[in-house]
Amino acid sequence: MKIYYDPADIRMADIKAVEKLGVSSLTLMENAGRNAAEVLMRSFSKAGKFVVFAGPGNNGGDGFVAARCLLAAGRQVYVITSAEYDKYKGDALHNLNALKKINTPYCAVMCSKQMSDTDIILLVESSDCVVDALLGTGSSGTPRGEAARLISLCRKEGGVAAFDIPSGIDPKNGAVYTPCVSADLTVTFLAPKIGMSIYPARGMCGRIVTAGIGVEPEDVLKDAFGISCFEREDIKTLIPPLARDVHKGSRGGALIFGGSSNYRGAPLLAAMGALRSGAGLAVLAIPDFMVDSASVILPEAIFVPLNTLNDNVSPEFVEDAVSPWMGKCRAAVLGPGAGRDSTQKTILRWFWSHWKAPLLIDADALHFFAEMQEELPHRDNVVITPHSGEAAAILNMTPGDVEADRQTAVKALTKTAGIAVLKGMNTLIATPYETRMIMEGSPALSVPGSGDVLSGSISAFLAYGLSPFDAATAGALLHAVAGKNIEESMGTRGTIAREIADALPYAFK
Questions:
Q1: Where are the alpha helices (DSSP H) in 7-143?
Q2: pTM of the predicted model, to two decimals?
Q3: N or C: which end of the chain has fewer CB within 10 A?
């Protein structure tokens, strides 16, 4: 698990290192550039010739230090500045002057304004690696001027490295501007930035390696805002192993309430997700007319028939049907395939008031949650799992607004429910106080029923006894890894939801 930080907090960390720890800014730059050079030499071990594009700020200063270290290691280095030399100031100017004083035929420092595109392209093409040290975390918006020109020329098949961030991405929200550097490697300083974890910017970063600056992150980022990002190797630490003498009762049971005449498969897929994620029991509370066929498809589940009137579940019978399972099921999922009949509003209200164990609200139940959220008291052990369209309805905004700032959106979703899971690539899980991100996933998951499987998977971990926050994280991570595994074995087209459920046990491994 890695923590990605707000770029403003990273910049403040530099100030804390100087003011509170007594480390000079020049030393911080020296450490950053030297460590970045070491990463370059490990990553491009056969590279003999480097071209460094250096901007006028501290990012360019890091590039100057790295260039000096590469020279000391016997590499050939060409440095192209995006500004005239008299525009450099402070630590960047100090290191530019130090570089220019080195008397060696293996180094040249040039200003891009005095070079044609052809000159630069020929230099890039003859190099083994081109380094983007143009724009750092203090930049914003579309690159302009000479920086934009050099970004557009920063192209080397398999040999582009970026310092701190690829120039042209937004390090806070993950936006990508035009032009933007597409890096094979990003050497980020002190700690990775939030925007680097979010698509589309994540796709421009390539492999991300963190280089130290001479201070420990915990000494300068203790109170900083960060997003914990989970990858497949975190499954082993997030999900506890099963004891050898485990039995189905100790695994816990999940009750799944849903289904309607038009959507008969959704609750079954949720039950498959629960069972394939290790639930001891999957109890399906579904309309009575569904039970016979559903029991043939999924005999491993337990079925609770719900009385219906005109194919809609009668709310007055829900309590008698569900109450006997309150002591046997430690979690409930409400909504998969439930439909939009107005009776579902009464059912949601009953579950919210009477089901005291963790409760997951999904699919059609989210439609009524959006309408009723102001009347529902806050519950810490409720998990909601909207996609951007459902989140938009809950937050009274457009799906585009949600996608434009997913971090703010997922936090806002926790107003009534204690935990929100904002689905999509880079699924976000949040409480009012903390945000997590899933770094796995695949287009193979973008199929009907995938969300039902996810809800079932989360319910299995709720039933097992994980905290709602950890359960939501575990289910989302397992689901995402299963999707990635499917992509690696089958590709991204043609997946059906039951295959996602079937892939869940393999994701544990």
A1: 7-19, 25-43, 58-72, 90-100, 117-125
A2: 0.89
A3: C
